[in-house]
C-alpha cells in the first residue's frame, strides 16, 4: 500500500501557488484495508475515503472505461493491482497527472512538468474526449492560469472542438455546468473562461445568445473585469457584467436553465433594470424612492451597495454621483414609521406618510 499526493496540489506547488486542498491516491489497497485503518468511505461510484485525523480525501487508484453518454457514463475498476501510472493516465491534463510520493519524489509519466514549463494545457490521452465536462474544466484552467501565460495546446483545442460538435455537452446537467461557471467566477477571470469556450465552439451550446455577440463584447467585458479585479469586484458583480449585453429574455433563460443562485440573479437584474437611471444627470426624488423600494434597501441595504459596485465596474469607475446617491439613500433610511405613529397617524395613512417623508428627505439631499 502506497500513498501519493496528486492533482492540483502537486501542480500548484510546482507553480508556487498557495495549495488550497490536498488529494491523495492510494495504490495497492482495498476498501476493507482502508476501513480497518480508520478511514471513512464517502464515495459511491468509486471508493473515496476521509483520513481519520486530517479529513483529507484519499481515493483508491482506479481506471475508467466509457460506457454511456455524459460525464457519469463510466465503469471504474479499483482493484489493488491498478498502478499509479494507470491512475494518472485517466486524468485530464498532463499538468494534473503528476504525483508526489511520501518521500517527496515526483512521478511524472506524461511529462506534466515539461508542460508546466511551456505553460501548456495538454490532454494526457485520447480518453480526454470521453468526458465532456473536461471542455469546461480546461476552459477554467485556461482562465485561472492565464496570468502565468498558459495556453491550450492545439491538439487539445481540437479535441475540445470535437466534443462540442459531437453533442456530448448537452448530456451535462445544468447544475454541473453552473458549478464550472461558478468556479471561473470565483477565480476572477470569467472573460477568459468564456473566450476559451467560444474558441472551441462550446459557448454556442451553453449560451447561444452570448456566443452570437461575443466577438463585439469581448473587449468591453475584459476592461470591466480588469477594472473590477482591482476594486474587489465580487463574483456576482462579475456575473452581472457578463449578462448585461443580453436581452431580458436571454438572461431569464440562462438563470432558469442553469438554476443560477438568487444573489447572482438579483445583482444582474438590478444592473439591467436600473443602470439607465444611475446614468441620468439629474434625479428626481420619486425616482430614487422607487429605486430604493424595488431594491428593498430598508431591509436589505447591501443590495444598493451591490448595484453601485456593479454599475461602477460597468462604467470603469465613471460614476461621479455615487456619493450623492448613497447620501440620498442614507437620508431616506432615517425616515421610519415610528415617527408618524408617534404623531397619531394610523393604518394605511402611515404608509403614505412614510413615502412622502422619504421623498422630502431625498429632495433635501438633491437640492442645490
UniProtKB/TrEMBL annotation:
Residues annotated as domain Poly A polymerase head: 3-122
Domain of life: Bacteria
Protein family (similarity comment): Belongs to the tRNA nucleotidyltransferase/poly(A) polymerase family.
Protein name, entry field: tRNA nucleotidyltransferase
Residue span(s) of domain tRNA nucleotidyltransferase/poly(A) polymerase RNA and SrmB- binding: 149-211
Keywords: ATP-binding, Magnesium, Metal-binding, Nucleotide-binding, Nucleotidyltransferase, RNA repair, RNA-binding, Transferase, tRNA processing
CDD domains according to UniProt: NT_ClassII-CCAase (cd05398)
The organism of origin for this protein: Pseudoalteromonas qingdaonensis
Coiled-coil blocks: none
Co-factor requirement: Mg(2+)
Amino acid at each position: 500500500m502506497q500513498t501519493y499526493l496528486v492533482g492540483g496540489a502537486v501542480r500548484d506547488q510546482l507553480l508556487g501557488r498557495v495549495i488550497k486542498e490536498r488529494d491523495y491516491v492510494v495504490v495497492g489497497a482495498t476498501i476493507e484495508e482502508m476501513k480497518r485503518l480508520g478511514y471513512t468511505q464517502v464515495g459511491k461510484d468509486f471508493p473515496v475515503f476521509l483520513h481519520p485525523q486530517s479529513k483529507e480525501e484519499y481515493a483508491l487508484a482506479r481506471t475508467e472505461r466509457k460506457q454511456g453518454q455524459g460525464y457519469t457514463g463510466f465503469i471504474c475498476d479499483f482493484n489493488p493491482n491498478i498502478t499509479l501510472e494507470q491512475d494518472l493516465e485517466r486524468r485530464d491534463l498532463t499538468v494534473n497527472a503528476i504525483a508526489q510520493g511520501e518521500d517527496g519524489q515526483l512521478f511524472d509519466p506524461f511529462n506534466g512538468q515539461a508542460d508546466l514549463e511551456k505553460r501548456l494545457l495538454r490532454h494526457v490521452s485520447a480518453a480526454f474526449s470521453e468526458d465532456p465536462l473536461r471542455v469546461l474544466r480546461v476552459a477554467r484552467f485556461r482562465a485561472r492560469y492565464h496570468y502565468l501565460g498558459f495556453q491550450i495546446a492545439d491538439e487539445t483545442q481540437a479535441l475540445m472542438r470535437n466534443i462540442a460538435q459531437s453533442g456530448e455537452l448537452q448530456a451535462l446537467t445544468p447544475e454541473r455546468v453552473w458549478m464550472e461557471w461558478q468556479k471561473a467566477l470565483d477565480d476572477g477571470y470569467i472573460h477568459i473562461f468564456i473566450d476559451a469556450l467560444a474558441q472551441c465552439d462550446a459557448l454556442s451550446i451553453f449560451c447561444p445568445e452570448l456566443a452570437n455577440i461575443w466577438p463585439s463584447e469581448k473587449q468591453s467585458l475584459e476592461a470591466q473585469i480588469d477594472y473590477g479585479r482591482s476594486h474587489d469586484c465580487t463574483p456576482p458583480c462579475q456575473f452581472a457584467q457578463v449578462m448585461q449585453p443580453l436581452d431580458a429574455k436571454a438572461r431569464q433563460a440562462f438563470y432558469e436553465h442553469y438554476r443560477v443562485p438568487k444573489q447572482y440573479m438579483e445583482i444582474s437584474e438590478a444592473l439591467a433594470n436600473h443602470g439607465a437611471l444611475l446614468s441620468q444627470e439629474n434625479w428626481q426624488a420619486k425616482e430614487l424612492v422607487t429605486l430604493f423600494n424595488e431594491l428593498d434597501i430598508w431591509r436589505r441595504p447591501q443590495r444598493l451597495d451591490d448595484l453601485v459596485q456593479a454599475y461602477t465596474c460597468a462604467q470603469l469607475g465613471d460614476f461621479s454621483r455615487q456619493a450623492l446617491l448613497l447620501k440620498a439613500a442614507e437620508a431616506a433610511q432615517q425616515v421610519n414609521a415610528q415617527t408618524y405613529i408617534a404623531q397619531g397617524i394610523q393604518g394605511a395613512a402611515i404608509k403614505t406618510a412614510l413615502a412622502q417623508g422619504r421623498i422630502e428627505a431625498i429632495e433635501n439631499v438633491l437640492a442645490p
